[in-house]
Predict the 3D structure of the following.
Amino acid sequence: MLELGLLSLGLYLAGWGARKLGVSPVVGYLLLGILLGPHGLAPVYRLGPVTELLGELGLVLLLFFLGLEFSLGRLLEGARPTLVAGGVDLAQLALGTVLGWGLGFGWLGGLFLGAIMYVSSSGVIARLLSDSELLAYPEAERTLGVLVFEDLAMVAVLIGLGLAASSGGAWAFAGAALFLALYGLLARFGGRWLRRLLAREEEALALVALALVALVPAGAVALRFPAAVAAFLLGTAVAESGQQRRVEVALRSWYEVAAAVFFAVVGMRVDLAGAVRELPLALLMAAVTTAMSLVTGFVGGRASGLGRRASLGHGLMLLPRGEFSLVVAGLAAEAAALSTGAGRALLGATSVYVVLMVTLGSLAFARFEAINERLARLVETPAERARRRARQEALDSVSLDSVSLE
Amino acid sequence: MSDAASGTGIEIREVTLPGVGKKYVMSLRAGGSLAVVVRPDGEHHVYHFLEGDDRPSDAVKLDADEAQQLANLLGRLVVQAPAGEDLDLVLGAMEIEWVTLEPDSLLVGKTVGDSQLRRKTGASVMAVLRHGRAVVNPGVDTVFEARDTLLLIGSPDQTDAARTLIAG
């Protein structure tokens, strides 16, 4: 009881502090874990059973909620522009992989790094967008579409990485195949059954939903299938059942609490000395991601029919990295096929990298207009420059008039 | 993404914003457009775009009650009842029906907007009775619950179609 109370209070304060500084609360949760965790600056907090459990549940719920919103149906709704922009965005996966190989992680380690750097944080971006004034901008629509694309691509990448990295060989392959086959059956024929199962009221609904969310990933782990991916796939299946909103309401407060704990636990696993050692790698990853995101965002935006300013805005919105990057790094740290040194390095660097990218992304959202305008001037055509100047002059003359009237 | 054109030829584009809500964009005859973003909590953001501009020139945030109030106001101003025998004509072609949602109805858990009841059948939901209270003129984001009683309005064909859809 004491553990839960202190944890919640600590998380509340960390989130509050982060908001005060104008960044996403996720940064606060991660830093809280890194600084006060067992390997931190002031190791006042030790990982108790409640924290461990909520952290695990947080990851599962995070991905389950993503699956609810970011399903294949949504991707198909977005149609061609989303597929075009999402396809261009995939270049980041390739570039990150090459970077990892160049840094001496080998091809498999490179693919891990590529995946870490490729996938933007849908959770963080959707929240930042919701709280911003930018919802009606054309790039907001494209950004959310690309996030759906990325999350679905990550399902395939994570299954592949899980298989390549595990020591289970044929058994791991058979387990993954069995889980996917069961999911296929559920998605194809289980809709009505799932709808009836979830057509309950109040606490009965909450209990049934929580049982599903805990049991399906647990079963997946028994089949050596990544729990995170299983939770995501379960979310997409529930999204099709028509009970999505009610399940969301029933599990909402579990989700909010456990997701915050998940980020703190990730921070607690980080050895501060190790994180400092990996700082150069994290900074390099952040710099490359920022450049890469802006370029692929611009190219993808243009290719899918956005204007120049909006295409730059699209790249800016895609900056935050979060849950999926941490999942990949966690997988890397446990991967039998990577050396322990490489896996640890990736996990340490990724935790710092996520803090950097969420901070940078939050600031990009907070000062979106100014940054977007600055960048847009770099790529504007002569006609656009003329129009901007004319508009500026018009604005200037208006303010002069009002001054003279006074 | 979908395009829906009503008899007036005014296009409304509907887009799902995953994790955020829904966006409806209506082009204005005088140029430019209006965008309405509806959040799951019922908050409505209304944006005005000038012609040739991809950033809104103005934004208004309405909470669920304010949005409802504005919808009522527009509805009252736009719909004017015809007088005399025309009124009988309208009443003759119109049918009002009560339908209660079984827990396994397709509509349970969906919002009024997601159910696309009106688009598929032509019938509209005038009110929802729930736990002895009435939600009059439910917004697109009102969620249907099991045992809700719906007050439907439409032509006899339309209300029949709606009954079939709701039971299915």
User: Anything to note?
Assistant: Confidence is low (pLDDT under 50) at residues 402-406 of chain A. The longest helix of chain A spans residues 138-165.
